[in-house]
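Structure ticket #2291
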Amino acid sequence: MSHIPTSSPDTRLDNLSKLHRMSRTAGLGSTDYAAINVAAVITAVLGAASLLAMVTPFFLVIPVAGVIVGIIALKQLKASSGTQKGFLIAILGLVACFAFSASTGYKAYAAFQQERTDEATLSALIQSFGNKLAASEYSGAYALLDARFRDRVSLSQFENFFKQMMIPYVGNVKSIESNGHFFIEEAADDASIRRGQGFALVTVEKNPGNQPLRVEVTYRYAADQWKIFNLGEWFPAQAAAAPGAPDQPAMNPAQPQGPGL
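Resolution: structure written out below.
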């Protein structure tokens, strides 16, 4: 009867350890082949797609997702002990995600600050306009109007509107205040021009029902300053006088309206 050699438990454990190491490094000898980490590839794709975040902050979700996947990819690559590749593309994807998200975030913050500044400027502008009317400084109030407004409504038309149309019915303007809400947008054909719109509450000497009048005000930003572009139905565009015609108030007396908005 032949003798069958047996191995000790320690020998078997050593053999298993060798097999495990061989499985972890299989294919890395002369060929140096390793699989590319899937998460690293996804990170690179999301990094490239993060360019969309420059279009609208809505797409900020893309670079945020890219950062999360990129961190996962780096952890997986570190744990692979060299059996996976993709470290460089994961880093490049992460850099792109951080760059585009930071740029978009800064633009969104700058736009928010600009809007707050514009709203404060418009509130002060319409308040100053009301103060000048209350002091009967019509030429000063007229100077706060946009050039296009002044092209179609002369100073005498402007002054006569308040003297002949408003004062006999509701008395002199005491103050004009914004209701605090504005809609501001850039002109489609020129980014240096912005337009604003909002409602102003006009307090007059004879407030009907003790409620201020409400007038829709449009504003225009050009040549680095905001001006009042129009005053609702007080001065409609079709009211411009024909050449040679006597100056007349722009329209019928202002009608009382509720405070609205």
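Closing remark: The longest helix spans residues 87-134.
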